[in-house]
Each structure stands twice: as C-alpha cells, then as structure tokens.
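Any chance you could type out some protein's one-letter sequence along with its backbone structure tokens so I can compare the two?
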Amino acid sequence: MATRQDVATHEAEIKRDIHVSENRLEARVKELEILLRKNVEILHAETKRDLAETKAELVRWVVGVGILQLAITTALLLKLVNQI
C-alpha cells in the first residue's frame, strides 16, 4: 500500500516532469518559430528576385516585339513605296 508520503512524492515528481517537458516544448517551439521566420524571409527574397527576373524578361520581350513590329511595318511601307 502506498502511503500519503509516497503519493505526494510521486505527485511532486510528475509535476516536475511535466514542468521540464513544458520547458522543453516551449524551447522547441521557439526554435521552430525562428526557423520558420528564416525560411519565410528566404522565400520572400527568392520571390522578389524571381519577380525582378520575370519583369526584366518581360521588358525584353516587349521591346523585342516592338522592334520586330517596327521592322515589319518599315518593310511593308518600303515595299508599298517601291510599288508606286
């Protein structure tokens, strides 16, 4: 049979174990929060870089298409002038 002292001792040990576990869990959660923030910052920077690259590529395409349109228009006008 367990005495009141035995029960109190086990209760104190259980409470101490719970407290230690809570502290470990809180520390791990903080570590994960820091890791998550770092990952979000990295993803944010990568996304900004990718958007900048996409924007630059889009500008190159628009300029290229504009130059091509100008060349085609010029060629058609020259052909039309030569026919007159």
About this structure: The chain is about 95% helix and 0% strand. The chain has a mean pLDDT of 96. The two ends are 119 Å apart (CA to CA). The helical segments are 4-83.
